[in-house]
Amino acid sequence: MPRGKVVTPAFMPVGTNGTVKALRNEDIEALDFKLILGNAYHLYLRPGLEVVRQSGGLHRFMSWKYNILTDSGGFQVFSLAPFRKISDAGVDFRSHIDGSLHKLTPEKVIEIQSVLGSDILMPLDVCTPHDCSPGQAEDAVRITTLWAKRSRDVWKSTMKDDSYLFGIIQGNFYKDLRERSVSEICVLDLPGYAIGGLSVGESGDVFTDMLVHTADLMPREKPLYLMGVGTPDYILTAVENGVDLFDSVFPTRISRNAMVFTPSGPLSLRQEKMKLDVKPIDPDCGCYTCKHYSRAYLRHLFKAREINAPVLATYHNLFFMEQMMKAVRKAITEGRFSGFKKEFLGKYMGSH
Ligand SMILES: [Zn+2]
After folding, report:
1. Active site positions, annotated
2. Strands in 227-266 per DSSP E
3. How far is the CA of 145 from the centre of ligand 1 (A)?
4. What is the pLDDT of residues 204-255, one digit of tens each?
5. Band of pLDDT at residue 79, cut at 50, 70 and 90
6. Averaged over 23-50, what is the pLDDT?
7. What pTM value is reported for the model?
8. What is the Å distance from ligand 1's center to 269 Cα?
9. Are the C-beta atoms of 248 and 14 separated by less than 8 Å?
10. Cystine design at 309: which of 94, 103, 258, 301 (Cβ 3.0–4.6 Å)?
11. Domains defined along the chain, listed by start
């Protein structure tokens, strides 16, 4: 990677607005993350491209020296915009911030990420809800392929050699459409690929079935990124199927809601029983938060709505994610991933 080696499988913290919520970059560095995620849609709407351009690109603007992957915003247009209209040309939508009208085309989205200076770029794609019709899902695959080709052409003709464009596989929950998407996208011979449109409200069984089916078809020599997945059980299932990269707001979002990871499952710091609990979140965790603070203190901070509450919880949760991924990598290297997964999940999924 252009800005530091990324050892996979890796989890990428999400910094939608050019910041990982509640943490300083110094913390993210100390946690050993070398690749974080930004969002082209959000940064294009606010602060706007001109601000980032005049600041010398996103890395300089947010003072982050390692790699950044930027999501195109396809997912955000579909999940946040109060109005959107898709055509083969692109998508017209209203901003979720001020209602202003915008048009994004695949070409424009590559241009935005070029101004941001992203190390990994994602093309504009069409995301579909998990209950959409076969016809809608098929049209989404068709347009996603069309846009991926146009994105590749612009990326090839304008970007420097040290940026990577990933292709996104769609196809909703139809196996034949997933197969079609894989064959149409992988023929573009891009530096990496991503599986989109999973973990959007479907059951765990459907998720696993669709993931295994899609991942099996992917070229093994290219990095594979599973978009929007950040729970330990889904990550371990995906790693088992050859996925290399993950991102999700989940670990940081639950932190702000007083929910923290432990080896025996998530724990709510708001519980009454934490009131007099002087243990750290996890006595075996080596993070800054666990070294210094008790569950009772953290519960107090959340109850008093102190700014430090989400800061300390987020630090612990991202530390947990990185430790988990380190353990995953070690288990793979030592050829004992299956045993590791079984042991980890046996403890994590058991009742508290
Ligand atoms: Zn900790």
Report:
1. 71, 247
2. 245-247, 259-260
3. 43
4. 999 999 999 999 999 999 999 999 999 999 999 999 999 999 999 999 999 9
5. confident
6. 97
7. 0.97
8. 13
9. yes
10. 301
11. 10-246 (3.20.20.105), 255-348 (no CATH)
